Amino acid sequence: MLKKEEILGEYSLPIFLLKCKTDFKFFCEHCLIESSNGDKIEIQPFQMKWFQEAERKKRLVIESGTRSGKSEIMGAAYPVWKMFCGKNIRILLISKTMEQSSSNLLSRVKKYVENNEILKEMFIPDDFRDSWNATEIKTKNGCWVKNVPMTSIRGYGADIMICDEIDSYENTNVFFEDVLSRLSPQAQFIGISTPKGPTNIIGQLKERDAAKTLGGRWSFMKTPYLIDSLGEPATINDREDIWYYSSIWESVWSRQLLYDLYGDEGRANWMRNRMCLDIGEVDSAYFPIQHILDSYDFNLGFSKEIDEESFCIISADFAQSEGLRADLDAYIVWEKKDIGGKLGYILTIKTMEKYHGLDTVFKIKRLKELYEQYYREKGIIIVVDPSNVGLDVMKGLQAEGLPVVASTFQSEARKKLYKTLSNVLASGRIRIPRNVLAEDKSVEYSEELTRQLTGFRMIRNDKGNEQLESRAPHDDWAASAAMGVNEAIQHEDMDLLPLS
After folding, report:
1. Residues of 35-55 as b/e, b for ≥16 C-beta within 10 angstroms?
2. What class is the 289-488 domain?
3. Boundaries of CATH 3.30.420.240 in the chain?
């Protein structure tokens, strides 16, 4: 434990306390002294910028790589300083899981206090055995710090919320519906993360900020490890460019280390992890992320309106198994509109629907309803995967007199379908609704579709043959999209009305 005498040094207690309250850097280096892993704390200029922005803005998102001190300084030291300066402060430390939260931020906060004689006297109450546990602490001055996983945040409110590794949260809806809804107008929010991709929580927050829905209260900070002489992010086009720039923390992130990691991680991962810049995807990605991002239309939500001169496709992929991790029924309605010029046509998603555990009768009923809703004289067709239950659905739709075609997903046919989807995405002919102002599920479902598409990789099997592999938990939206797009490009002037 750090004793009071060695903490105070040449300062009297009143002067020391005053300097700690008015100077965050002094507090960290002279009161906390050692980080939770035992290293001497030396606050770097870029870390002070985080602190200053947190004090200036009520909502702050920090993107930085591993071992930049983001969790240590802003997730642990900063809450301790806030408790040091005030009283009756409620702080929530939010992580992806309970294990991450309790073993990371809260444990660091407790370690700072318990290993420091001054802080121990200030914070630890006599009944600490009852008020300090693995999930929360209550201090002498009325402060309360609790760790909670994101999925269990309902029922809690706080003056300060700190989300660690916010971009790793898979369920973005829980964040927007449950986490942000717990923030009062005066509450402070800090999100900390190494960026994971342009469509995760940080990317969606930036989309909302650009759409002016966040009220200008949010601040987004990136901390790249390499900067130029003016302090601007380095421009790294290849590995050798590293030597022309300066490291923001040479003793921890030397240029030699960054150079070596570039070779280990590959360009895309290195740029994301060390420069906080998403340039695309790993080399084996089948659907380049930029092609998907370029297809987003931030002015569109789901719509029942289709131009009378447009052709309509309803694509349906059906669940093939039961259980929590089973794929769902995924239905997508497409509008194919001729626009002339170089592109010729545009394929726009009009709506997306997903269902779990539907019987065959309901599948037929719902697809018939979509057909009637989006019917246009120009033509409309339903495309389904005929495997398993799909064959019964197909027969049921045909019995209703509806135009339906099969799109098999067997081996080589599957690869061809996804290749067509990839090519049409690359051509810029697809529009995916992603309007954050729309009161529908366009953002949520486009996020799921993106996640599934970016999970595909082209790999070589043991025989050296190329094969397509999906690393995403599900591929229902991707399969439905592939069927719809493939069918759309098959038909130009064909009459697709049902037989009378």
Report:
1. bbeeeebebbebbeebbebbe
2. alpha beta
3. 289-488
The residues facing 337 across adjacent strands are 346
The CATH H-level superfamily of 4-223 is P-loop containing nucleotide triphosphate hydrolases (3.40.50.300)
Q: Which residues contact 352 (CB under 8 A, 6 or more apart)?
A: 302, 330, 331, 332, 333, 441, 442, 445, 449, 477
CA distance 437 to 102: 35
> Which long-range contacts link 321-329 to residues 24+ away (Cβ below 8 Å)?
322/357, 325/473, 325/474, 326/356, 327/474, 327/475, 327/476, 328/354, 328/355, 328/356, 328/474, 328/476, 329/353, 329/354, 329/355, 329/356, 329/358, 329/363, 329/476
The total of other beta-carbon atoms located within 10 Å of residue 329's CB is 22
- For residue 411, which phi and psi values (nearest 5 degrees)? 40, -105
Which pLDDT band, with edges at 50, 70 and 90, does 58 fall under?
very high
What digits encode the pLDDT tens for the residues 60-75?
A: 999 998 889 999 999 9
Q: Where exactly does CATH 3.40.50.300 map onto the chain?
A: 4-223
Count CA within 13 A, CB hemisphere, residue 144. 11
Contact 143, 87 (CB under 8 A): yes
Tens of pLDDT, residue by residue over 483-497, are 999 999 886 544 444
d(CA 213, CA 306): 28
> End-to-end CA distance of the chain, in Å?
87
CA distance 350 to 347: 9
Asked if residues 477 and 295 have their Cβ atoms less than 8 Å apart, the reply is no
pLDDT value at 269 more than 90:
no
Q: How many CB atoms lie within 10 A of CB 147?
A: 26
pLDDT score recorded for residue 459: 74
Give the C-alpha separation, 125 to 138, whole Å: 8
pTM over the 0.85 mark:
no
